[in-house]
Structures are given as structure tokens and as C-alpha cells.
Amino acid sequence: MANMASDAHGHGEFWRSPLATREEAVATVQSESCAHCGTEYVAGSRFCHVCGAARATHPAVHPLQWATRLLNNLRLRDRLALPLASIVAFGVGILCILLAIGTGLIYTADTVLDWQAVQVWRIEWLLAAVVALLAGILLRGAGGMKTE
Predict the structure, then answer these.
(1) Which residues fall within 8 angstroms of residue 41, CB to CB, at 6 or more apart?
(2) How many CB atoms lie within 10 A of CB 81?
(3) Residue 148 falls within a domain, yes or no?
(4) Quick one: pLDDT at residue 65?
(5) Do 32 and 53 sit in the same domain of this protein?
(6) Interval 32-91: pLDDT, tens
(7) pLDDT of the residue at 148
(8) What distance in Å separates the CA atoms of residue 148 and residue 142, rounded to the nearest whole number?
(9) Domain extent at residue 77
(10) One domain for residues 77 and 35
(11) Does 27 share its domain with 75?
């Protein structure tokens, strides 16, 4: 029993108050401060509690913002003079054509029934490609981009 008490005093953590650990946790969290007066914002507040200045808001990130940035970097919209929806539809059409080719390469047919199944899958991928490419053509006029 005496060994347990001396071991407990050696660690010294059982007597620590919960406020001490909470203060340490709060100290490790980085908080924003007001640009005008320098005081820290209260959690969840939209304004500074000292000077009343509005807190800087972070812009919401659009889920497809990475695709738009990629297309802007590649400058496909300028090169092709097409709206974004048309470019995406053409991309889906090309992907479906590649999948139709890949279906014929991946699956082998041992019987006539297997061959027919593979051909049906290829036909489905090619029909999807035709639909996507037609959608790309139809969306080309709906984009409203001027080609002057």
C-alpha cells in the first residue's frame, strides 16, 4: 500500500484539477484575433466584442471548384470556345468510348453466350458515349459563349 502511494505521488497526475488540463487544451488551440484592435474573437462570434469590427469570413468552397481550376489552367474553354457543361459532356463521351474498347480487351469469350454478353456491354458503353457526345453538342449552343 505504501508503494502505491509513493508511485502515485511520483506520477502526480491523479490530483491535477480538470481546469488545469482544460486551460492547457485551450492554450494549444490557435485562435483568430481582430485586425483592428488585436483582441481574440469569442468562439462563434461574427463581430469583435471590444471594437465591434466584423470578423473576416472565409469563402465557401464550391465542390467542383477543383475541376473549374483545372479547366482554367488548361485553358480548354478558350481553345475550344465551348462552355464548361459541353466540355464535361465530351469528356464523359470519350470516357465511355474508352470503356467500350476496354470491355472488349478485358473480357474474353469462351462460348457464344459469353461473346454476346461482351458485345451487349460494348453496345451499352457506345450508346452512352453517343448520348454524352450529343449532349455536348446540344449544350454547346446553350452555353451562350460568343465566338467573335
Answers:
(1) 31, 32, 33, 34, 48, 49, 55
(2) 14
(3) no
(4) 75
(5) yes
(6) 788 888 888 887 788 888 888 888 776 555 666 777 777 666 776 677 777 878 888 898
(7) 45
(8) 16
(9) 65-142
(10) no
(11) no
